[in-house]
Amino acid sequence: MEPIIVTEHLSKSYRGHILAVNRVSFEVYKGEIFGFLGPNGAGKSTTIHMLTTIIRPTGGKARVCGFEAIREPHLVRKNVGFVSQDIAVDEALTGRENLALQGRFYHLRTDVILHRVQELLALVDLTDRADHLVSTYSGGMRKRLDIAEGLIHRPSVLFLDEPTLGLDIQTRHRIWEYVKKLREEQGITIFLTTHYMDEADSLCDRIAIIDHGQIVALGPPGNLKECIGGDLLSIKLVPGRWDENALQRDIASLPGVEKVSPGPDGSFSLIVQKGESAAPGILAALGEMGLEIQSISLKRPSLDDVFLYFTGRELRDEGADNFHRTNIALRRARSQ
Amino acid sequence: MKVFIADTWWVCWRELKHLQRQKIRIMLSLAQPIVWLALMGNLYQRIATIPGFPAPTYLDYMAPGIVIMVTLFGGVFGGMSVVWDRRLGFLQKMLASPVSRSSIVAGKMLSIAVQNGLQALLIFGLALAMGANFSAGPVGVFPLILLVTLLSMVFAGLSLALGAVLTSHEAMIAVTNFFTMPLMFTSSAMMPLEMMPHWLSRLARWNPLTYAIDPMRELFLHGWNAISIVQGVVVLTLAAAVAAVLATNLFKGHFT
Fold first, then answer.
1. What is the complex's ipTM, to 2 decimals?
2. Helix or strand or coil: residue A264?
3. CA A26/CA B194 separation, integer angstroms
4. How far away is chain A from the Cα of B238, in angstroms, using its nearest Cα?
5. Are A134 and A266 in the same domain?
6. What pLDDT does B254 receive?
7. Which of A56, A88, A107 has its CB closest to that of B3?
8. Which of A16, A18, A23, B177 could form a disulfide with A9 if both were Cys (CB 3.0 to 4.6 A apart)?
9. Chain segment A153-204, per-residue pLDDT in tens
10. Edge-to-edge strands, sheet with A18-29
11. Are residues A236 and A209 in the same domain?
12. CA B64 to CA B69: how far, in whole Å?
């Protein structure tokens, strides 16, 4: 597979000490949908901004579409499209004007612009509303227009920074459809960032999990889930007089159990091979030990668990919601 | 160069479209100078009777001052659009595209110059209708508008430089307000240099506003004064160029 983005120890520090991105190295192959998954502040946007030449790396190298991001930013810019997480469409212009202006920024010829604007409006189903002011558009329509703008110059790589941030579920699914369509029909390589697990899971061919500016895991979603090594069985025991350490050792020796970690209030998290068939045996064995079980749950590992496994933390969304609220307030302020 | 001009035009086009679609801005920009002309012309009417005052009526003296005031206020808030563009992500979008960085500054400066030029033309017409005297005759309107557009570029450039550094519009408003009125009062916009305290008139000689007002006032009160016009145009062109280079460099330094 031919790499279209290659980074080597790519880093960005602010004011000399805050390391937003810390020596990140990875490759993105031509035609794939590659996802950067991580919590807010992990360095996802900073990486995208370096690859799109909006900010200059403070260390390492990045090659995008065969050009050096640091030395040949103008050549990179011509070959990549960038859709920021802000839904940066101009409300005072119509959809058509927004697209055409973007074409001007990419120095396209007038006849090419006219043709592509028509084509892109159809692609994102905005032909009917093309000549209405964007201030009358819904959030989903704006995002679609925004994505279309990133495609005006037919880039080989499209960067989507949090493409569905703050959109409702239906709109999110619709955006996913467009992204898949773009890859299938136009063969565009797509690099996206997200902190939604389901989004990374259903869209991406490969995912890099990024935390505190570093890649902690990289691979297809399926492989990452396999890293965990089995299914997740949680057991909560009725409080009794048993020794936690001894019990942990006993459970670990049961057939099918790969790993046991004790939790609070008599709960244990188990990683189990072939969970569905192994669970009854484990429960029976616990019963024989004279232990009373309060509740159990069995599930296949999700990317949440993968994230927890690699970072020791859960991926939370609180920050994102605050961020999103600020953005909405700003947009309102502008439209008044 | 061709690319620079095209980029500048499209950045400017967007700003002018905003203006065109915000009817309230157009209406206020018409109403404001009328209010000022009426208020100030009447309020300071009797100043003209002070011995040594250089104009027969305060309106004659003040008309160019109002043009300058409106230009100054229009120019100094020019950087606000950058702060907004950054907040809304539009600036990043432009920076990710091949648009030249200097065009972003130049385009915004140009749009403000066009806006202020049109507004100045209008105030000029109003002042004449209210009875102000314009000695230079109809052709004198060309140097007048040239001076206005150059002056607005000076302040738009400085404001854009500020906008490249400051990320909040609150900070932007605070800094701008802090400087605007002192700029106004340390120039000859409202009082002739000869009637100011000595230290103030020395300060006024360093104020770019003075270099726009003096030749304009000559055009109103005495007719053509080539030296004064050339001096004004040269000083303001240099100042605008310095402001533009400063803003462009701050942009580059701040974003790449």
1. 0.86
2. coil
3. 70
4. 29
5. no
6. 65
7. A107
8. A23
9. 999 999 999 988 878 888 888 889 888 988 998 889 999 998 888 888 889 9
10. A18-29, A3-14, A59-64, A67-68
11. no
12. 9
Contact: A86, B97; criterion CB under 8 Å: no
Question: What is the pLDDT, as a whole number, of residue A166?
Answer: 79
- Report CB contact under 8 Å: A106, B7: no
CB distance B97–A49 less than 8 Å? no
Cα–Cα distance between B48 and B38 in angstroms, integer?
16
Domain that holds residue A290: 229-300
Kindly state whether residue A316 falls inside one of the protein's structural domains. no
Residue ranges of the domains in chain B?
2-254
Residue among A53, A87, A334 minimizing CB distance to B84: A334
Tokens 């130049």: give the residue.
B106
Model confidence pTM above 0.90: no
Burial bucket for residue B224 (CB in 10 Å: 0-12, 13-18, 19+) = middle
Per-residue pLDDT tens for B135-151?
888 888 999 999 999 99
Cβ–Cβ gap A77/B92 under 8 Å: no
Same domain, A199 and A258: no
Q: Mutation test of the interface with chain B: which of A49, A86, A323, choosing the one with the most B Cβ atoms within 10 A?
A: A86
- Same domain for A206 and A183: yes
Domain count, chain A: 2
In chain A, which residue's Cα lies nearest the Cα of B95? A54
Q: Is residue A323 included in any domain, yes or no?
A: no
A177 and A41 fall within a common domain: yes
Strand partners, A317: none
Domain assignment of residue A310, yes or no = no
